[in-house]
Amino acid sequence: MLCARRLGGLGVGVAALGSGRAGRGSLGAGIRAQRVSTTWSPVGAAFNVKPQSSRLDLFSERRGLFGVPELSAPEGFHIAQEKALRDTELLVERACSTPPGPQTVRIFDELSDSLCKVADLADFVKIAHPEPAFREAAEEACRSIGTMVEKLNTDVDLYQSLQKLLADKKVVDSLDPETRRVAELFMFDFEISGIHLDKEKRKRAVDLNVKILDLSSEFLMGANFPNKIEKHLLPEHIRHNFISDGNHVIIDGLHAEAPDDLVREAAYKIFLYPNAGQLKCLEELLSNRDLLAKLVGYSTFSHRALQGTIAKNPETVMQFLEKLSNKLSERTIKDFEMIQGMKMKLNPQKSEVMPWDPPYYSGVIRAERYNIEPSLYCPFFSLGACMEGLNILFNKLLGISLYAEQPAKGEVWCEDVRKLAVVHESEGLLGYIYCDFFQRADKPHQDCHFTIRGGRLKEDGDYQLPVVVLMLNLPHSSRGSPALLTPGVMENLFHEMGHAMHSMLARTRYQHITGTRCPTDFAEVPSILMEYFANDYRVVNQFARHYQTGQPLPKNMVSRLCESKKVCAAADMQLQVFYATLDQIYHGKHPLRRSTTDILKETQEKFYGLPYVPNTAWQLRFSHLVGYGAKYYSYLMSRAVASMVWKECFLQDPFNRATGERYRREMLAHGGGKEPMLMVEGMLQKCPSVDDFVSALVSDLDLDFETFLMDSE
C-alpha cells in the first residue's frame, strides 16, 4: 500500500500532483490561502548572479534540510524515521478501529504521508547530498521505512479495514469520486502484495517482491558497469579515445557522437558484449515479475503494470506500437537512406548503415543543412533569461509567478541550490521548488524531478504545501558571465518545470494521488507539452535575449532549430518503438519462447530495420526495464497526447489564459485522482483513439509550425 515503488504497497514516492474537487482553479472550500512573503525577489535576476553568501549565518539558527528541523545533521534522519514509525503504529490502530467511511481513507492517506515524508526526502538525499554521512543516513532511513512498508503490506487487520469499506455498497456510494478512487488505489496496491491470498501464498508474494527489489538493484548496477578490453586488441590509433587502465582500456559508454566510425563500432561491440551474470540477472528479474503477477491474479506482468493507465492493457499498447511502426516505416527507410548517403560521402569504403551510425550521421546532416551550432544560441539562453521566460509563460497562462527566496542556513545541501516560491495571484503561496542546477562531484548525471513532500488537505483545514526538487547538470558559469544553456538544455529545463507545475497545481485532498503520482503514460504529458512551448517562437521571443547586447534571438534561428529536429526524426521514433515493443515482449507471456538476446535480434530486425550485431546484448544496458518495466511505451503515448493538446488547444495562442485555466482544471488539478483518459477527454473535448495518437506523432514529423506561423504573419 504505502510504498509502491519499493514494495508494491502503500504508495510512496512517485512525484505527485493533483487537485480533485478542492483545486479546480481555486483553493477550494476549506483550504486557506497562504500569505505572501516580503523576502521574495524577481526570478530572472536571481539566476544570473551567484547566490548570496550567508553573511549573517554565523549567528543564525541552523534550520535543517528543506526546513525540517531534525535534518540539521545526519543523525536527524534517525530521529525523523523513528517519529514516522511511531506515528505509523498509532495510525494503524486508528485505521483498524474506525468504522468504515471516508475517515478510513483519510487515515490511510495520513499513514502513507507520514512514511512518504521521510522516504521521499531520503530517496533524494541518498543520491544528491555531497556529504557521505548524510547519504548514508538517508540510505539507512530508506531501508528502515522499507521494512515498515513490508510489514504493513502483510498486515491483515489493516487490509480488512479497507476491505470492509469497499465491500459496503452504501458506504462506497456515499463517497465522493476522489475519495473512492483513492480507496481503490490503496486496495490495488495492497493486493499486488498478495495480502488477499492464503498465508503460504502471501509469504511467497512478499518473498518475490523482495527478490525483485534485489534483482532490480543488481541489474541497474550492471547496466552502467563499464567493460574492459586488453589494449593490444584495439587498433593503436583509436585507443586514446578511451580510458586507459594499465594494459587494459575501459569502455564506459557507446561514444555515439565520436566522428571516427571505428571508435563508435569498437565502443558498441565492447560495451554491449554480453555479460553472463547480467544476463542471468535479467532473466531472473523477468521471471520473478511474471511469477508475482500470476500469483496475484494477472496473466502477465504487463497486464498488472498497465492497470489504470491511458492504454489500460498490453493489447492496446501493441496495437499502438504496431500501427505507429507501419506509419513510420517508409519515412524510416528514407532516413536510413539519407544517413547512408552521408556515410558514403564521408567513408566510401564502409557505407552500410550500422546501429552505431544514426546518432552521429544525423547530427552531421543537421549541421550541414542548418547552421545550428550551439555556441550561436547559448548567448541568448542565459539561465536567468530562461527562468524569466518560464515565469512570463506561467503568469500569462495560469496567473502564477515564480519568486526567488533566500534559503535559511542548512536548508539546502549545496550553496548554489536556489529556492523558488510558486505564488498564485489570488490563491497565494502554492509550494516550493528547489533548483539544483549545477554540476558537482558525485552528483547523478541526469535531469529529473523529485517529489520531496506531496500536497494534501490537513485535518485543521490548512494545505500541506508541496515541495519538489528539479535537478539539471549545468556547467558553472565562467567569470563575468551567467550560465548559458544550449537549446537542448533549455528544452530540458522547460520539460522538468512541466513536472514541477504539475506538482504545484494538483491541489488534491490526498497526498497518495498528489502531483505526478499518477499513471506513467499520463505523468509525462505536462512535461512534454512544455517542450512544445519551448519550441514556439512567440514564447521564445518573450525571453531569449543576448546576455551582453540585449539583442533578441532572430526568428529564422528558431525556425532553423525547429526544422533541424525533424532530421532523421522518423528513425529516432522507430528506435523508441523498437525499445517499447521489446519491453512488452519481455513482460508478456512466460516462459519466453526464446532467449532475451534472440528476442532482441528478432524484434530489432522487425521494428527497427538495422541489422543485429552478433555477440552484443543491448538489452543488458536497458536500465529503463527497472523503473519502466512494461511501461516504456509511455514516452510515445504521452508525446502523442501532448501533441494533440498543443495543436488543438495552444497552437493558436500559447498565452491564452482561458485555455490555461482549462488545462489546469481538466489535466493538472487531479493528480492521480481521476482516470487519465477522462482527463485527456476533458481537455480535448473528445475521446482520442489509437489512430488519433499515431496520427499526432506522425504529423509532428511533417508540420513546420514555426514556418507556418512566420508565413502567416
TrEMBL record:
Mind telling me what this protein is named? Answer: Mitochondrial intermediate peptidase
Which PANTHER family has this protein been placed in?
Answer: MITOCHONDRIAL INTERMEDIATE PEPTIDASE, PROTEASE M3 THIMET OLIGOPEPTIDASE-RELATED
SUPFAM superfamilies in the record, alphabetically?
Metalloproteases ('zincins'), catalytic domain
In the record, the note on similarity to other proteins reads: Belongs to the peptidase M3 family.
On the tree of life, the source organism's domain of life is: Eukaryota
- Cofactor list: Zn(2+)
Q: Which Gene3D superfamilies match?
A: 1.10.1370.40, Collagenase (Catalytic Domain), Neurolysin, domain 3
Coiled-coil boundaries:
none
GO MF annotations, alphabetized: metal ion binding; metalloendopeptidase activity
What organism, scientifically named, is this protein from?
A: Daubentonia madagascariensis (Aye-aye)
List, for all copies, the residue spans of the domain called Peptidase M3A/M3B catalytic: 255-697
